[in-house]
Amino acid sequence: MSITAGDEVRLTRLRRMKAVALSLLVGAAIIYLATLGLDHSGVWGYVNTMAEAAMVGALADWFAVTALFRHPLGLPIPHTAIIPRKKDELAGSLQSFFASNFLTEEVVRERIADAALSRRIGGWLQDEAHARRIVAEGVRVARTLLGRIKDEDVEALAVDVILPRLDREPVAAITGALLDGIVADRAHKGFVDLVLRELHTWLTKNPKAFTAILHERAPRWSPHFVNQRVVSAVYWQALDWVSAVRDDPEHTARQGLDDLLLRIASDLQQDASVQGRFEALKNRLLTHPQVGRTVVSLWASVRASLEAVLDDAESGLHERAVRGVRELGESLLTDEALSDRVNSTVSDAASWLVTTYGNELSSVISHTIQRWDGRDAAQRIELYVGRDLQFIRINGTVVGALAGLVIHAISQLVI
């Protein structure tokens, strides 16, 4: 049997208690022998009888305790070494006892209710050190998962599963409905504002690039100074127009864009020809040979960004995650409804687990003990309960001595 550090401590305590019980037996034997030849008509008779009865009680209880784990003195006495002989039956009994008294829905729900898990968890999560530990462990797990995802697996998932499914599913009507909802909710306004701001910034910083593009398309027969004036006028007009559209939420260009998007959304939902062209375009895009490599390239960029954020312990993401964990802990302490939901969810999950897999869980006990050798099983069990069993020997010695005292007193009265 392998001995751990904890087992060493238990073994030391067991030996100490055995020594105490044995000392009482030896002490009783010494007293008995010392008073054996004295006058038993007085006090020494009581002492001798007490010592004799104490030895009997000590030996009887030593035999009873020892017989549980081995043959006393190595003698193959019937009905001894009970645990090595009845190991498998004991394992089955322990399994039944554990399943009947611990792995029941009523017991689990009662224990979870008494434990107030949500409040304990909330208090634990509120501590900043604990919150940072949770985030650190989450980062470690996420980092490990990212490292295990291979590029070829991403490409296979996209090419073999996701893209064929998208290719088979008609998405024109869904896209039209989504676009219709976006325009109706003006969810696209932020994107349009961003595009206009960036376009205005680019025009402001790159007038030469803009005019160069227009010069390339100017007629060659036109004089240069004329083209220069026209290009310059077009540039300033474009800059003013972009600025006006950017600053006016109700600009006609914006309204025109909204009308165009709504018309496209309507055609995608109702016009069969538009739907057919949209689906054909989708199919060409999804079946293009470069799509798989493009997906892998996008995934590589996303993964690199995620890894950079995860590796930066000072990033805002880490601080927000820590703050979020602590806020969750505070909510568990202050929000009664949330606390009740968490307790109810944990209780339901634990009840389902013990109801569905209770027998399998409890069978771990019997399977483990059944794999032990009989002598090994006895040693393991004695290591854990043997110290307490030594109190039986101590009590037997004390009770035997008291019984001997009472019996001797009664015999003296009768005689």
Provide a compact summary of the structure.
The protein is mainly alpha-helical. It is built from 18 helices and no strands. The protein is rod-shaped.
Outline the structure in words.
It contains 18 helices and no strands. The chain has helices at about 5-35, 45-70, 80-85, 85-100, 105-115, 115-125, 130-150, 150-170, 170-185, 190-205, 205-215, 225-245, 250-270, 270-285, 290-310, 315-335, 335-370, 375-415. It is mainly alpha-helical and about 425 residues long. Helix content is about 85%, strand content about 0%.
**What's the helix-strand series?**
HHHHHHHHHHHHHHHHHH
How many strands in all? 0
**Number of contiguous helices:** 18
Radius of gyration: 43 Å
Uncertain stretches of 5 or more adjacent residues? none
Mean pLDDT: 83
Overall morphology: rod-shaped
Percent of residues in beta strands?
under 5%
- Specify the biggest β-sheet: none
**Estimated helix fraction:** over 70%
Give the distance, in angstroms, between the N- and C-terminal Cα atoms. 57 Å
Oligomer: single chain
